[in-house]
# Entry
Amino acid sequence: MSFTHMEIKTATKEFPYIGFNMDACLGALDCGKCLQACVPHVLRCYTPIPEGKTTVSKEWIPVATFPSLCTGCMRCVEVCPKKGEKAITVTFISTRLPKKIFKRK
Amino acid sequence: MCEWCTEHGKGKKWYLSVENYVRNFSEMDDWLKEWNSNYRQVQAKLWGPVSAEMDMLKNRLSPRLEKLADNDWEEGFSRYHSGQTVTLDEAKEMCDVADENGGFVKLACTCRKYKRGGKYVGPENTYCLGISAYTSMYHEHPERIWKEHKIETVSAEEAKEHVEKLSDEGLCHNASYVGSPAYMSKLCSCEYPVCVWLQWRLDWGITGILRKGHYVAELDMDTCNGCGRCVEACHFKAINMSPTYGKAIQKQQECFGCAQCMRVCPVEAIRMLEREKIPTLKEEW
# Structure
């Protein structure tokens, strides 16, 4: 069996987008419930630059470092203590991924 | 031998070279300022929104970012802050060297704080052992230490006990440095995925952030009794249980040489080989 050529096509995949509402967030060190709820360790906290161009006033804020490891279990959203609209949102966007297709002779 | 030992250790193990322990902190201060400012930028760049894009790059969502990865990640971490896996014996040798050159501080783990928030900075989470650069920073510039961290000075014996206790708990050790002439900073006790370096190396494949150690485990399948303790002990997914043989089976290419599997093996089926003497693995770092 041999392959004649290889095509690269795109396939759509649901990719998680983890967003934060920094005005509602209590800060990653003071609260940090979403960090502790994340099983695959997607989230982590970091300090923004003090006198940089940032709109964030918190000292430690949560960020999503490994969205591809996110399974969409929504535990981080459930444990967020903010009433009403949560400070963290997980939405799934359809993204196009390159996919290699091998064709047989 | 990778370039760290040739550059930082004069051909020997860089983390046992005394020169890397005795740098003058005040001489390093200008450089540390630069490091701090750059590191802040690197931090904001890498761990902010771009880090999510890097993740997409790994998943080939955005090939345009490949250039950024080449320039910033491998070199950046090699230059500013990286480490290498060490065995427990090497960690104890490091303790001996560090005892004569600055001493130790015990502190809450930075990675666990990053990954899990403020709950994990208490005294029960003192996993990090600060040496050399961190000790001098603690003594000379205490204002630079994060205020949440509980820090205490320990003696060499206490440090060795501490490291051995954590090793018994199942954590593997990494030696870390800061700076382009290497300046030893910490002796870490890590696990996947809570340790930032392990996760970045294993999930993103950034070799500049954590290098494999000087040893490779070799499993003797004739002696193995199939208890599976080494599989639990391995943080690098290098050992599996094979249902066909009823024994453990390893992949030496994945081994980082932390020697945790050797420590837990009840029948002494695992021994550590020097990486230099294995032709196919001696350039794998």
